[in-house]
Fold this sequence. Notes:
single chain; mainly beta
Amino acid sequence: MAEMRVPLERAVHRIRLCSVDELAPGEARRFDVEGLRLALIRIGDDYYAIGDRCSHEDFSLADGEVWSEEFEIECAKHGSTFDLRTGQPCSLPATKPVPVYDVRIEGTAVWVEVG
Ligand code: FES
């Protein structure tokens, strides 16, 4: 009799990053949590989390300028911008995306889902 294989569901792990009021609109901040380097960006009352390591070279995206109207962040080293919703680069020299993570607001806490 053939063995039945049941796919394991990917476990989603949640990490609390900060309180909603710790980040001003248009601000980005780096978080080093549980072996991950994340950039949390606030636009209005919405929060976006992406990998903080630019895909062109190892540089912190949280140090860059937030382009709120475009939902992008600009790498401060060579100027590539990344879409905060997809992680895709929008301009050269970066050609590869950065990871994006789901963000949840619960009460006054900002959580990111990884896994
Ligand atoms: S290190 Fe980010 S664009 Fe070069």
